[in-house]
Design goal:
Layout: E1 2-10, H1 14-22, H2 27-30, E2 34-42, E3 46-53, E4 61-70, E5 75-82, E6 85-98, E7 101-112, H3 115-145
Antiparallel strand pairs: 1-7, 2-3, 3-4, 4-5, 5-6, 6-7
Helix pairs in contact: 1-3
Length: 146
Protein backbone atom coordinates (compact mmCIF):
# COMPACT_ATOMS: atom_id res chain seq x y z
CA UNK A 1 0.00 0.00 0.00
CA UNK A 2 1.28 3.47 -0.89
CA UNK A 3 1.14 6.16 1.78
CA UNK A 4 1.83 9.85 1.44
CA UNK A 5 1.58 12.59 4.06
CA UNK A 6 1.83 16.23 3.18
CA UNK A 7 1.75 19.45 5.19
CA UNK A 8 1.65 22.82 3.52
CA UNK A 9 1.00 26.43 4.48
CA UNK A 10 -1.41 28.16 2.09
CA UNK A 11 -2.37 31.83 1.99
CA UNK A 12 -6.11 31.36 2.45
CA UNK A 13 -8.40 30.85 5.43
CA UNK A 14 -8.88 27.31 6.73
CA UNK A 15 -12.68 27.43 6.34
CA UNK A 16 -12.35 28.58 2.73
CA UNK A 17 -9.98 25.72 1.91
CA UNK A 18 -12.20 23.24 3.75
CA UNK A 19 -15.21 24.39 1.70
CA UNK A 20 -13.30 24.14 -1.58
CA UNK A 21 -12.21 20.55 -0.90
CA UNK A 22 -15.72 19.62 0.28
CA UNK A 23 -17.33 21.13 -2.85
CA UNK A 24 -16.87 17.87 -4.71
CA UNK A 25 -19.56 18.72 -7.27
CA UNK A 26 -17.14 21.32 -8.70
CA UNK A 27 -14.17 18.94 -9.12
CA UNK A 28 -14.79 18.44 -12.87
CA UNK A 29 -14.33 22.22 -13.29
CA UNK A 30 -10.72 22.21 -12.11
CA UNK A 31 -9.33 18.74 -11.32
CA UNK A 32 -7.79 17.74 -14.70
CA UNK A 33 -8.59 14.02 -14.64
CA UNK A 34 -12.05 14.28 -13.03
CA UNK A 35 -14.72 14.15 -15.72
CA UNK A 36 -17.85 13.81 -13.56
CA UNK A 37 -19.03 13.68 -9.94
CA UNK A 38 -22.28 11.97 -8.99
CA UNK A 39 -23.72 12.47 -5.51
CA UNK A 40 -25.59 9.29 -4.59
CA UNK A 41 -26.61 10.33 -1.07
CA UNK A 42 -26.01 13.28 1.22
CA UNK A 43 -26.62 13.16 4.97
CA UNK A 44 -25.74 15.55 7.81
CA UNK A 45 -21.96 15.09 7.82
CA UNK A 46 -21.42 12.54 5.10
CA UNK A 47 -21.68 12.10 1.36
CA UNK A 48 -21.72 9.00 -0.82
CA UNK A 49 -20.39 9.89 -4.27
CA UNK A 50 -18.85 8.51 -7.44
CA UNK A 51 -15.94 10.24 -9.14
CA UNK A 52 -15.34 9.44 -12.80
CA UNK A 53 -11.67 9.70 -13.76
CA UNK A 54 -10.10 9.70 -17.21
CA UNK A 55 -6.34 9.37 -17.63
CA UNK A 56 -4.55 9.33 -20.96
CA UNK A 57 -4.94 6.02 -22.81
CA UNK A 58 -7.11 4.52 -20.02
CA UNK A 59 -10.88 4.12 -20.11
CA UNK A 60 -12.97 6.16 -17.70
CA UNK A 61 -12.84 4.65 -14.22
CA UNK A 62 -15.46 5.06 -11.47
CA UNK A 63 -14.30 5.55 -7.88
CA UNK A 64 -17.09 5.21 -5.32
CA UNK A 65 -16.43 6.87 -1.96
CA UNK A 66 -17.92 7.58 1.43
CA UNK A 67 -16.94 11.07 2.61
CA UNK A 68 -17.25 12.14 6.25
CA UNK A 69 -16.67 15.73 7.23
CA UNK A 70 -16.62 17.81 10.39
CA UNK A 71 -16.94 21.56 9.88
CA UNK A 72 -16.16 22.30 13.54
CA UNK A 73 -12.80 20.52 13.39
CA UNK A 74 -12.25 21.27 9.67
CA UNK A 75 -11.60 17.64 8.73
CA UNK A 76 -12.61 15.58 5.71
CA UNK A 77 -12.11 11.81 5.48
CA UNK A 78 -12.78 9.66 2.44
CA UNK A 79 -13.12 5.89 2.43
CA UNK A 80 -13.19 3.92 -0.79
CA UNK A 81 -16.24 1.84 -1.66
CA UNK A 82 -15.75 0.52 -5.20
CA UNK A 83 -13.69 0.80 -8.37
CA UNK A 84 -10.28 -0.28 -9.67
CA UNK A 85 -8.53 0.03 -6.31
CA UNK A 86 -8.16 -2.48 -3.54
CA UNK A 87 -8.24 0.34 -0.97
CA UNK A 88 -8.12 4.14 -0.72
CA UNK A 89 -8.38 6.48 2.24
CA UNK A 90 -7.73 10.20 2.39
CA UNK A 91 -7.69 12.62 5.31
CA UNK A 92 -7.66 16.40 5.12
CA UNK A 93 -7.21 18.67 8.12
CA UNK A 94 -7.17 22.46 7.93
CA UNK A 95 -5.68 24.59 10.70
CA UNK A 96 -6.04 28.35 10.86
CA UNK A 97 -2.74 30.21 11.32
CA UNK A 98 -4.41 33.59 10.91
CA UNK A 99 -7.37 34.90 8.88
CA UNK A 100 -5.45 34.71 5.62
CA UNK A 101 -3.11 31.77 6.19
CA UNK A 102 -3.68 28.10 6.99
CA UNK A 103 -1.80 24.87 7.34
CA UNK A 104 -3.22 21.88 5.51
CA UNK A 105 -2.51 18.27 6.33
CA UNK A 106 -3.19 15.72 3.61
CA UNK A 107 -2.78 11.99 4.17
CA UNK A 108 -3.51 9.34 1.54
CA UNK A 109 -3.23 5.56 1.45
CA UNK A 110 -4.00 3.61 -1.71
CA UNK A 111 -3.52 0.22 -3.26
CA UNK A 112 -4.57 -0.96 -6.71
CA UNK A 113 -5.95 -4.46 -7.26
CA UNK A 114 -3.52 -4.87 -10.17
CA UNK A 115 0.20 -5.03 -9.25
CA UNK A 116 1.33 -3.33 -12.47
CA UNK A 117 -1.14 -0.47 -11.97
CA UNK A 118 0.14 -0.10 -8.41
CA UNK A 119 3.75 0.22 -9.52
CA UNK A 120 2.88 2.75 -12.23
CA UNK A 121 0.79 4.76 -9.75
CA UNK A 122 3.59 4.74 -7.16
CA UNK A 123 6.05 5.97 -9.78
CA UNK A 124 3.89 8.87 -10.91
CA UNK A 125 2.16 9.59 -7.60
CA UNK A 126 4.31 12.63 -6.63
CA UNK A 127 3.36 14.31 -9.92
CA UNK A 128 -0.32 13.46 -9.46
CA UNK A 129 -0.35 14.70 -5.85
CA UNK A 130 1.37 17.97 -6.80
CA UNK A 131 -1.10 18.51 -9.65
CA UNK A 132 -4.06 17.87 -7.33
CA UNK A 133 -2.80 20.20 -4.57
CA UNK A 134 -1.98 22.87 -7.18
CA UNK A 135 -5.51 22.53 -8.59
CA UNK A 136 -6.99 23.22 -5.15
CA UNK A 137 -4.65 26.20 -4.65
CA UNK A 138 -5.62 27.68 -8.01
CA UNK A 139 -9.28 27.15 -7.15
CA UNK A 140 -8.75 29.08 -3.90
CA UNK A 141 -7.14 31.95 -5.81
CA UNK A 142 -9.96 31.97 -8.40
CA UNK A 143 -12.58 31.95 -5.62
CA UNK A 144 -10.86 35.03 -4.17
CA UNK A 145 -11.36 36.80 -7.48
CA UNK A 146 -15.10 35.94 -7.68
Amino acid sequence: MKNSKREEVISHSAIKLFNIVLDIESYPDYIPWCTQMVINQRKDNEIFADMYVKYKFILVQKFGSHIKFDQNNLTIETNYIQGPLKDLTTKWKFEEIDKKKSKIFFDINFEFKNYLHQKVAETFYPLIENKMIDSFKKRAVNKSLD
